[in-house]
Amino acid sequence: MRSYEKYIRYRTFPTPWCPGCGNGVILKAIAICFSELDIKPKDIVVVSGIGCSGRIPTFFNTNTLHTTHGRALSFATGIKLARPDKFIVVISGDGDALAIGGNHLIHAARRNIGIKMILVNNGIYGMTGGQVSPLTPQKFITETTPYGNIEPKFNVAELLEGARASFIARETINRPKQLKEVIKKSFKHNGFSVVEVISNCHINLGRKNKMRDPISITKWISSRTVTKSQYESLSPEQRNHIYPVGVLFEDKNRLEYSDLYYKHIVPAAQASIPQRRKQNGK
Amino acid sequence: MEKFEIKLNEDALIRREIRKPSPKKNKLTVKKIYCKGCGLCVDICPTGTLLLEDNKKSKFGVSVKIDVQEYCIGCGLCESRCPDFAIFVNYNEKKEQNEKKASITGKHNCC
Amino acid sequence: MRRKQVLQGNIIVAKAALAAKCNFFAGYPITPSSEIAQFMSRELPRMGYDFIQMEDEIASLGACIGASLSGRKVLTATSGPGFSLMQEHIGMAVMAEIPLVIVNVMRGGPSTGLPTKPSQADIMQVRWGTHGDHPIIALYPAFADEIYSETIRAYNLSEKFWNPVVLLLDEVLAKAHEDIELPRKNDIHIYKEKIHRIKDLNIYDREIGENPPRVDFFKGYPIHIDGLEHDKHGWPTSDPETVNKMQTLRMQKIYHYLDEIVKFKEYYMEDAEIMIFSFGVSARSSLAAIKMAREQGIKVGLFQALTIWPFPKIPLKERFKRIKKVLTVELNMGQTKYEIERVSSDDVEKKALLRANGIPFTPKEVLDKIREF
User: What is the extent of the structural domain holding B37?
Assistant: First the structure.
């Protein structure tokens, strides 16, 4: 038995996802990271939103919470404040984190609260049947854009930089070993960290756009992503639809929210209790 | 088998032609109840050890076959890429018995 | 004799929550309930507990549910527009059986409405606001000492029955300063149950009338909490028999204990021929009107509901056997008046004094309406 299998709830297998779905690769990468960092299963909480990626926590043998659409980060904030010593992971899809939950993403990054987020980006709303999402490329056909998508995409890394996040990374499911290394680095970071994982959805996104099987869509993802050093050597025109992967930004000096709360606010509050209340023992 | 699965097998056989059997013995274990026949492991195996085959017992119709065990170089890419925990490289056999008892396939319903 | 203090209604709620050992607050400011958040932001860090102002009301309730699952006693305070936003998460707390206390200081509505004027128009929303079949407990104090005791009772009920409890308040009572004598610590009863270490995954397994252990992360076996319909382990299912059993259990856990949950107060009811049904600030106007009416010889009494939901149907039906005239006094365009029509039989004469323009009733207006009988 592998050491990472103790973090998997085999009782709930087989997984409900389509054959070749990247969600299983992400599940395995996170389980390997847990076992390499040797965290106890009952000290971990995995929180998720709604969607195909929102079913990932059901298969972890840790405390898991399946919440409403887009609000997973607010639940995780409550848990982190109540128990700052525990390890909290949030798994969210692209529609969940950027469409309905965009506000919570910005504020969690601004506060730098110690939550590790995995943003699964497959460019579509998979579970509800294939509607357009904020990260669907332009000109693609989906169920709610039968004449082609005219809305431009977000660039998640630039959005988070504006919100002053302290750890931003991007990886794809084609590179599972590097994915595991980047997730492990993000777990070690003290503060809010986001790893955007570019995933495949050949059934909903691929079928209408001439990529019907998992292999052709993974090849399309590979053609769109390059490493950070290769990206810097490209010219601005070539950079148009290409995304760099790896750790894009890391700031180790920002203080984490609950540390800041217990270092600054609680002592200041306790010092401000009036003298007569202290004498009365209140 | 569909068109892309036949093409996967052809590409795997082409990769195998330039390889020789590996000097170190590596054992591959496949848990057929979990394999959905997606083909991700067949695509990434650098030596073309794995192929897809028709499987009437599986509800997906296809599953992975270890065609030539001696070509496996033990890189572990198939294990890290498999989404369903179905293939392992040099798996510990003794503990596999206990784990089979613990894994019960439950009924699952999507939202 | 203990010292009497002059306290604002909002502050009484906050002090009662602290006496009930509340140790987490996540909220968003809104008139007229911001004072609760401001008081908690000063006091909770002094005790080493957590306060956070979230980015909206939806996130506030999300953070409260997360903290409640990690073993804290939570509080959040809002008003009409914020309460409308919180409905989805109230539904999730009912589905996953998580204890919560929410304070709704009602103001004029709908939408932005009258931010600085009172109304009693959220009563039906508290019962039916979120989608699906869901039981809810709503408490509604009217006097200063009731605000204190009902807040503590809200915590006890939410912990015992694993359900969100909404504490309703009128805007005038929340903002008015009244004198109150706070009870001693030993006189306050706080519900404490034995926290079981979760030994296996049957977290929701019980029969009607039994209370299972409190759902908590980090106390034993790792568990799964879900907003989807689930079985006794907490795992998602859509099997019809299991779903039926779980829904019945969730409804019955409130309706099995009506004697404990439903509380009311009666004034001058022994020989009354006319009954006034009221709550909150309208009950205070009605009480003054009844004293004036009694001087004029009209036999009228007051039934003040302290628990609005579940509706006090059984006590009312008993009184309707003897009393055949009822007047509903409420500061809205007619909400509990329909409940009174449902509960009373056809031979009872029903009248209602209704208004929603932001001014509470004066005792003379209530007296004029009583005289119409």
Answer: 3-92
User: pLDDT at position B99, please?
Assistant: 46
CATH code at A3-256: 3.40.50.970
Instruction: Determine the residue among B11, B40, B59, B91 to mutate to test chain A binding: the one whose Cβ has the most chain A Cβ atoms within 10 Å.
Output: B40
Q: How many CB atoms lie within 10 A of CB B31?
A: 18
Look at residues C147, C123, C114 and name the one whose alpha carbon lies nearest to residue C338. C123
State pLDDT tens for residues A46-63: 999 999 999 999 999 999
Looking at the structure, tell me whether residues C15 and C152 fall in a common domain: yes
Instruction: Report the SS3 class of residue B39.
Output: coil
Domain of C357, in residue numbers = 266-371
Digit-coded pLDDT (tens) for A204-219: 998 888 888 888 898 8
User: How far apart are the C-alpha atoms of C335 and C137, rounded to whole Å?
Assistant: 17
**Which pLDDT tens digit goes with each residue over B43-58?**
888 888 899 988 888 8
What whole-number distance in Å separates Cα of residue C28 and Cα of residue B13?
63
A214–B38 C-beta distance less than 8 A: yes
Token reading at A126: 């998979």
| Cα distance between residue A114 and residue A111, in whole Å | 9
Q: Which of C42, C64, C218 is nearest residue A42 as measured by Cβ atoms?
A: C218
Type and span of the H or E element at C118: strand C114-118
Is there a domain that residue B40 lies in?
A: yes
Name the neighbours of C, counting chains with at least 3 Cβ pairs within 8 A: A, B
Interface touch B99/A1, C-beta < 8 Å: yes
Q: Please say if the pLDDT value at position B108 is more than 60.
A: no
What SS3 state is found at C8?
strand
What DSSP string describes A67-84?
-STT-HHHHHHHHHHH-T
Helix extents (H) in chain A: 23-37, 72-82, 94, 102-111, 156-162, 176-188, 214-224, 228-232, 257-260, 266-271, 275-280
- Same domain, yes or no, for C69 and C180? yes
Whole-angstrom CA distances from A60 to A1, A57, A80, B73, C200 are 16, 5, 19, 30, 16
Q: What is the pTM of this model?
A: 0.92
**Residue C102 pLDDT exceeds 90:** yes
What ipTM was estimated for this complex?
0.92
- Classify residue B12 as left (phi > 0), alpha (psi -120 to 50) or beta: alpha
Residue A215 in contact with partner chain B when CB distance is under 8 A: yes
Is C214 or B93 the better-scoring residue by pLDDT? C214
Specify if C201 maps to a domain.
no
d(CA C331, CA C343): 20
What is the arithmetic mean of pLDDT over A70-85? 94
Q: What is the pLDDT of residue B100?
A: 45
Min distance C125 CA to chain A CA atoms (Å): 21
The pLDDT, as a whole number, for residue C195 is 63
Tell me the one-letter amino acid at A185: K
